[in-house]
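Lab notebook, page 48
Experiment: co-folding of the full assembly
Goal: obtain a model of how the components sit together before planning crosslinking
Operator: M.T.
Materials (sequences as entered):
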Amino acid sequence: MTTTMRSEFPRVPTNGRALPAFLIVGWRWISRNPAVAITPILLPFIFLYFLSLISPPSALPLEIVGAMMFTMQNIGSWVLGDSAYWRIEHSLQDMFVASPLSRVRYLFGIAFSNLIAMLPALAILMVLLAWAGAREGTPLTLGAFFVLVASLAVLWVLFSSVGIGISSRIRTQREIWPVGNLTFTILGMLTPLYYPLSALPPLWQDAARFLPATYAALLVQGALGITPASPAQMVLYAVLLVAAATVGLVVMLRLYRWGEA
Amino acid sequence: MRTRDPPVNTRAFRGLAAFLWTEVLVQAHEELAMAASMMVQSVLLVFVWILAPSLLGVAFVGAILYSMFTMGQRVLNEAAYVRIDHKANDLYLAGPMSPEAYFVGMATGILVVYVAPVVLLGVIATAVVHLTWAQGTLLFALSATVWVFSASVGYIFSTFFRDNRAIWAYSSLFFNVFGVLPPVFYPFHLWPAALAPIALLMPPSAAAALVQASLGITQLSSGETLLAVAGLVVETVALFLFAIYWARRTVREK
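Observation: model returned without errors.
Model output:
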């Protein structure tokens, strides 16, 4: 398509600034709707508050890491909502399909615009993690910080692609909320984000091992020293996280309808 | 445009049964939404089951009350969707159906369909908590009161939205802040004592505190019990009457 565009319309720019444009979309959205900025910040904290009441204080660092991963998972739900809403309500996707923007850039654009809304929550949770980790003897070292950021980045890409892949199959606005809610809540419940994997019943543990977020959780918990893991185990978790995320991405990109809808 | 009277003069609650049945038929096709409406409760029940199984009884009672509370979110979504996306409320309200029948019919139709998973929760709760008839009746009455309150809130809020995309963020914030943060899923005594009056003035946590007190899980003073009962009744009646007034008023506006 880009080659055709260049030959037919030589003056039309085919290399735009997709990410900055979507950054502005994300910023304008939250600046016009304050609740959109507040909701993703508050939701993980509401769960954290509830968990802090029913679990021992020593579990707080693990729960904060869970809240950060839950936040990344929420981005997937928001990506699903945005892309489905723009396509169904505004027929905006047709315009993007007709433009030089590729579907992968579109995916990253929407994922990026939704990340903007989640950044304040992630920043606050990071500060909380440093504080709670120091208090509970699981400090946030530089190495653990990088492992955490890398794991969150993998989940961001993965859940965003899950969101956009599923959204491209949604037909009516009525389906957006229940489909997004069911998909991401079930994925979140199955993975041990807010509790150690060992706390789950054996069958559940086996099911959780098929999900990428489980390895992200194990990797970060190991890096922080919350759940003991040897260097070899850490490497294994990292490899499994990347492998499972790659499989998930490939499946979602196959599910993702771009121009043929 | 503003007119002095509704488009057609109607008697109060005219068309209620017809619209209620319409809404039942519409909602009965929303299996996904029905399953999704139980998600937060399920997550919190799983948290309690894994981390504090001794609180499972309290959490089940909370899940019932929370489920009735979040039916207001369904009313909000449905009323906004019908108005913004389909513009069907103009059609409905241009006819002989009264505005209050539209609101109450929609809320009751949603209740009829969405109450099924709540009944299932009730059956499990009865087995876990061993409710007596009196406690079961109290839970039923308080659940019904919470539903009237939340349906009224949901309908009133729905009239403020101009854009479907913004609904989720605001409704999720409202229903989670009032339904999960206060002591609905956990014992009332774990809530900060200084903030107890605030929790007793929020219908979901007031109802939960009253049920917990009847189960002997929580001790409420007579003043606290009075505050919870009075707050629940006054807020619910006032809001329901306001929702009827608001339904009549907003039908005159374009």
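Interpretation: Residues 17-255 of chain A form one domain.
Next step: discuss with group before ordering constructs.
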